[in-house]
Write a structure and sequence with these properties.
This protein is mainly alpha-helical. It has a single domain, classed as Resolvase, N-terminal catalytic domain (Rossmann fold, 3-Layer(aba) Sandwich). About 40% of the residues lie in helices and about 10% in strands. Strands 1-2 form a two-stranded parallel sheet. Strand 1, helix 2 and strand 2 form a beta-alpha-beta unit. The mean pLDDT is about 80.
Length: about 90
């Protein structure tokens, strides 16, 4: 059975209870995201590998290819988070 889950948050933040519920629910066999950075900004390949090892998978519907602009946006997004933790 397919289920849609929406959560307002960034792929750079950890406190995402709906995502954590999906990741810990063994009945969820596939997580579909659009675009990839809505799931996680960093470590997507590791998360995908972890899911595949459990017999589950992730699927990205829209692969964004913004090159340098996307990298700059990631850096701009992570700097305030790092500063706040310090």
């Amino acid at each position: 059975m397919a289920q849609g889950v929406k959560e307002i948050g960034s792929g750079i933040n950890d406190p995402r209870p709906k995502l954590l519920n999906l990741l810990t629910d063994d009945s969820v066999s596939r997580i579909v995201v659009e675009p990839q950075d809505r799931l996680t900004r960093f470590g997507f390949n590791s998360l995908d590998r972890w899911l595949r090892r459990q017999g589950r998978e992730s699927e990205v519907i829209h692969l964004a290819n913004h090159g340098k602009a996307d990298l700059i946006q990631d850096v701009v997004a992570i700097v305030p988070s790092v500063c706040a933790r310090l």
